[in-house]
Amino acid sequence: MTYIEGGACELVSRKQVTYKSFPTLATAMSGLRVPDAILDGEIVCLDKFGRSLFLDLMRRRRQHAAFYAFDLLFHDGEDLRGLPLTERKRRLRRLIRASRNERLLYADHIESRGVDFFRAICERDCEGIVAKHRLGTYTARPATWYKVLNPAYTQKRGRREMFQRQGDMAQLASTTGVQFIEVERGDRAILGKWLADEKVSR
C-alpha cells in the first residue's frame, strides 16, 4: 500500500509494517501532485524486459524499485472503496498518467480469455495472474479475487508452499462472474504484447 498525504509518502505492507528499505522510492512517490491518496499495489524490481525480479526485491539489490499500482482506494478526500473496480481503475490510470512519475506504474488488465492469458504468462516465466470481478468493491480480504500461480515459475525458491496451494486453470475458466484479469506483479512487457496481439478490451 502507498499512503500519500501532504507531500509525504509511506509504503506499508498488508500487515501494516512500514517499509524502510526503499527510501528513494518513497521520495519519488511523495512528488505526486495530490492532496492525499491511498494506492494498492506492489513494490517491484524489473529486468530489461519488464519482468519482476523477486530475489532482487527481497535482497534490496536495486535502488530503482518501482510501485505497480492496481487499485485506488482514496483520492483527494474521497473514499472510492465502494465504487466498481472498473471505475477505480479508470481513476487510477488518469492519476498515474498525470503524475508522469517513472517509478509509479499502472497495472493494466484484460477482460477476456483468461485461460489463454494464463498459458502465455507461464510460457514467459511470470509468477501468475489475479482474476477479479470487474464490478467488485474493495474489501480488506477480497472474496472475489482469485490468484492463479505458475507452478513452474523459476523464482519460487523459498516460497514453494505458496505455489503448492495455487489454483488451476479450470477454476479460472469456470468461475462465474469473474471477468477481470490482472497480471500478478504487473508484467508490462508481456501484457503490452498480449493487448496488441489479441486486441482485447482495455
Written account of the structure:
With 202 residues, this protein is of the alpha+beta class. The protein has 2 domains: 2-106, D-amino Acid Aminotransferase, Chain A, domain 1; 109-198, no CATH class. It contains 7 helices and 10 strands. The chain has helices at 23-29, 54-58, 85-99, 114-123, 160-164, 169-174, 188-198; strands spanning 2-5, 8-11, 36-44, 66-75, 78-79, 104-106, 109-110, 128-132, 145-149, 180-183. Strands 1, 2, 3, 4, 5 and 6 form a 6-stranded mixed β-sheet that branches. Strands 7-10-8-9 form a 4-stranded antiparallel β-sheet, with helices on one face. A hairpin with a 2-residue loop joins β1 and β2 (8-11). Mean pLDDT is 76; it is low at 161-179, 184-190 and 192-202.
